[in-house]
DNA sequence: GCTAAATGCAACAGATGTGTCGCAGATGTT
DNA sequence: AACATCTGCGACACATCTGTTGCATTTAGC
């Protein structure tokens, strides 16, 4: 019923975590899953879910917000404005892939257009374009490249890479993503 | 109630078409839309929808099957096994983009993994890889390229390009997709 | 124009999901 | 040990969607 009041008791806090983790798992497999299914996966009663989250929406909001906070943190940690562009790009990519592998539902949801996260997502996209512009200024991206398109392609590549089941190492996946982003599949002359 | 019996009367056939087109529009905007909303968009009563399609699933099936048939036809028309690889690739890309712009829901649905369309979609993907292999043999794709990955990237690029609202010309979009697929965003040496 | 088919409308039954409530018992905190 | 909190359980109300049926009316096809 309530989302925030006064500090929760230890077991209640544990329930909240269990619910969030179960929600991530269940919703990743089926975004239309019922709260009943989520509760079952979390090992709690459905009423407990309602006690900890006012709405289904509130639950999803918490999930997405948590992940977006982590996303911001992870991006900031790569120093995208000061580090060498390719280094930052690689580090961001690997971190985002790690995040996406652990929180597939929340990450997908947060990137959905037309959602309440649109503005925040747009801010992130702007930072991405800024980083790409730096890579452009160092000659790693063509001077005439369409950076908005490149950013979209970058996102799509990350999305595809995250679906890859054969290669679980985020760093190798990041290398593959960036290689593809910069050079495509054509032969290197 | 019934899906196929004996030839439909002219007005009934018109209803079926109206329902399918409305379903495409409505479901593209909201995949969880109710049959009521679809009926309203089609300008018919909800019961008429049930008369023409046994299930919601049957309606979606018809939508997806229709589009997949068109997809097969469009691919075949590009002669992917005989035409010069890059020519076929461009033609297929432009046609698929056209299809995707007109049937965004059905196309997305048909590409969903783990669905009942998986086998058919897999067959299409195999043809895609075959075409890419031909492009590889002509030197347009690097000899050591991972063609499965390249195919996924190709799909993702088409998906992104279809979201592009500023450039509605499928041929120009196809050129952009293929350029990106082959050369990425890096500078041409 | 006659007949069969198709439609809209209203009503119904059933399923599912959501959110609330009260209470008895377990669990943590002090 | 005492107290407040948390939980599971059962029950309820409510909304929404799906699928069906019957009937009066319209429409297509011959």
From TrEMBL, chains A, B:
GO molecular function: DNA-binding transcription factor activity; transcription cis-regulatory region binding
Record PROSITE patterns: HTH_TETR_2
Keywords assigned: DNA-binding, Transcription, Transcription regulation
Gene3D superfamilies according to UniProt: Tetracycline Repressor, domain 2
Binding region for DNA: 34-53
InterPro entries assigned to the protein according to its UniProt record, in alphabetical order: Homeodomain-like_sf (IPR009057), HTH-type_TetR-like_transc_reg (IPR050109), HTH_TetR (IPR001647)
Domain of life according to the entry: Bacteria
Domain HTH tetR-type residues, every copy: 13-71
Protein name: Transcriptional regulator, TetR family
Record lineage: Bacteria, Bacillati, Actinomycetota, Actinomycetes, Pseudonocardiales
């Amino acid at each position: 019923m309530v989302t925030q009041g006064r500090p929760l008791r230890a077991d209640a806090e544990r329930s909240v975590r269990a619910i969030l983790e179960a929600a991530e798992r269940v919703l990743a497999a089926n975004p239309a899953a019922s709260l009943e299914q989520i509760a079952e996966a979390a090992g709690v009663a459905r009423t407990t879910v309602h006690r900890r989250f006012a709405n289904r929406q509130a639950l999803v909001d918490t999930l997405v917000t948590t992940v977006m906070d982590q996303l911001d943190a992870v991006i900031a940690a790569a120093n995208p404005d000061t580090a060498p562009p390719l280094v930052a790009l690689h580090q961001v990519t690997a971190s985002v892939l790690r995040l996406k592998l652990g929180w597939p539902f929340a990450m997908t949801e947060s990137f959905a257009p037309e959602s309440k996260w649109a503005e925040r997502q747009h801010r992130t996209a702007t930072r991405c374009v800024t980083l790409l512009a730096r890579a452009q200024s160092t000659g790693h991206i063509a001077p005439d490249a369409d950076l908005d398109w490149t950013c979209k392609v970058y996102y799509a590549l990350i999305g595809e890479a995250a679906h890859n089941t054969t290669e679980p190492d985020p760093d190798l996946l990041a290398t593959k993503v960036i290689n593809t982003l910069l050079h495509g599949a054509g032969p290197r002359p």
